[in-house]
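Re-run with default settings, no changes from the original entry. Doing this only to confirm the output is reproducible before filing.
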Amino acid sequence: MNTDSILNTDLFIWVILPLLIFLARVVDVSLGTLRIVFVSKGLKYLAPIIGFFEVIIWLLAIRVIMQNLNNFMCYLAYGAGFAMGNYIGIYLENKLAVGRAVLQVITRVDASELIKALRQKSYGVTSIMAQGSDGNVNVIFMVIRRCDFETITNLIKKFNPKAFYTLEDVRFVSEGVFPIKKVGLTRNLYFPPFRYWRKGK
């Protein structure tokens, strides 16, 4: 069976072709989601590179769609791939945890032990006393790496399980105090030109 015969089979037209379109859309939309996040974080080197591959994959997918306008399965695959690509892109962004964020913790109980534990782990902590709706509260502000969020919240829950905390993204930090982390081999090989953080002072 030659190539033309394979391309004209029902299996290819109704199953394989839509599947390829679906996968292409998943990849390009996932890349697009990451690109938007990187742009918002100010990663001016990573975003264009991802955008290049994103648009190439999109062009391939739309070319196939235009050649098969009478195949409704291609439309369904295109839409499903777009939806799944958004989901996977958000999932990957959460896993990568790129950038820094401001963590604000509000607790009614004394926060001195929590503050001490955070500082012992080399986190920069600013604390103030404030007036809450039911009395005095301790307010703690921290600029953290997003990848440290889970570690810090586990520590907060250990000292005060009922503490209220919020997390807000920040685009730029001029200075900060952060724990020193060992950088893995993969990041050493591929990411030094695109470093987006500054070492704490």
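The chain has two domains: 3-96, 100-194. The longest strand covers residues 135-145.
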